[in-house]
Design the sequence.
């Protein structure tokens, strides 16, 4: 089975590492010659909107998938229309995830509550929207925002003009009420070609500056009802989109009520713990799904945590000296705000795991146990 992946970042790299034991081969397309996936598979360097490059990429593939959601839909449609290879997840899923307004509307359509929001395309519309939903609020671009980019918090009326000046040029914005949630969680599920589904335990996430710092799974507390609600929402999204592959939905937990934040139609940072912490990793399950193979067991092997390495690399020997620490480096140059690797920990005791997480974070330059 030869798998084509649009995008050559660390997610593509980890897909290949999960697929090689299953005798899969990989080809990646990325505009960067030093893309991490090039370390582990064939890399074609070019633009996603170049027809010649796309045809060269798709030739001889059995299936095509993506490792980030901002691939132009025209690229996927060209591959589909030429019948080079089936494309999963479907184009509709990527188009929805690429637009925060369409994403919110999808969540509402399947019965998942969202924070109050409005689409805005002018300063007057922004003022009217804030009158309706209140402050504080977050102004976001509808497209191309990730890891805290493309968004501004508005806490007072005096900040409205400056926020619009910063983001208003796009004219395609959305503003949503800042909700006082108890915690951020995510549900990761996988749906096969025949519609079968499986779900991982609910994940509890800690963000700072819009970037995921730590994920813990299963989420703390008695989460049975939350798990059921999250699975129901994810299942409905998958069915609505005719989805195939791994899907992640980020959620706010407000006293046991879940609000939809955003979704990622791909393997996700909050699922990295599954490499060592679940019976089948999200990467292997994504490949099983898109290749038409039986889905794997999603159960946890205990309590697991993932700590992102952001911006700077700690001393690897110190991390490796920690009992049970699994270090994953992406082959990316250090840069402020850049995810250059992660560490996963697994323990049968939740309290012992928490202590070990703090030990790892003490060694990470951009982190501290209280962050």
Sequence:
């Amino acid at each position: 089975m030869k798998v084509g992946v649009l995008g050559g970042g660390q997610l593509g790299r980890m897909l290949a590492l999960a697929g090689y034991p299953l005798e899969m081969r990989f080809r990646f397309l990325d505009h960067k010659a030093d893309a991490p996936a090039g370390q582990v598979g064939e890399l074609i360097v070019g633009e996603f909107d170049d027809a010649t490059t796309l045809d060269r990429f798709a030739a001889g593939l059995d299936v095509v998938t993506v490792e980030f959601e901002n691939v132009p839909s025209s690229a996927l449609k060209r591959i589909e229309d030429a019948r080079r290879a089936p494309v999963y997840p479907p184009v509709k899923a990527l188009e929805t995830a690429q637009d925060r307004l369409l994403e919110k509307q999808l969540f509402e359509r399947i019965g998942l509550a969202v924070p109050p929001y409005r689409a805005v395309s002018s300063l007057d519309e922004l003022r009217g929207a804030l009158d309706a939903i209140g402050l504080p609020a977050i102004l976001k671009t509808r497209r191309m925002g990730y890891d805290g980019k493309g968004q501004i918090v508005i806490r007072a009326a005096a900040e409205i003009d400056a926020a619009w000046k910063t983001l208003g040029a796009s004219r395609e914005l959305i503003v949503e009420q800042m909700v006082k949630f108890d915690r951020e969680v995510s549900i990761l599920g996988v749906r096969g070609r025949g519609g079968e589904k499986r779900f991982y335990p609910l994940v509890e996430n800690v963000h700072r500056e819009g970037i995921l710092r730590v994920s813990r799974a299963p989420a703390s507390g008695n989460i049975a009802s939350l798990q059921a609600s999250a699975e129901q929402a994810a299942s409905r999204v998958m069915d609505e989109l005719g989805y195939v592959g791994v899907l992640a939905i980020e959620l706010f937990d407000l006293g046991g009520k879940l609000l939809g934040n955003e979704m990622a139609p791909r393997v996700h940072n909050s699922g990295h713990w599954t490499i060592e912490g679940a019976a089948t990793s999200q990467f292997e399950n994504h490949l099983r799904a898109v290749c038409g193979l039986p889905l794997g067991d999603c159960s946890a092997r205990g309590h697991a945590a993932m700590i992102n390495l952001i911006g700077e690399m700690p001393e690897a020997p110190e991390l490796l000296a920690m009992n049970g620490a699994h270090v994953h480096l992406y082959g990316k140059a250090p840069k402020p705000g850049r995810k250059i690797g992660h560490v996963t920990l697994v323990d049968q005791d939740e309290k012992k795991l928490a202590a070990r997480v703090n030990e790892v974070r003490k060694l990470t330059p951009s982190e501290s146990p209280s962050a």
User: Anything to note?
Assistant: The chain has twelve helices and 17 strands. The first helix runs from residue 10 to 19. Residues 97 and 103 are 6 Å apart (CA to CA).
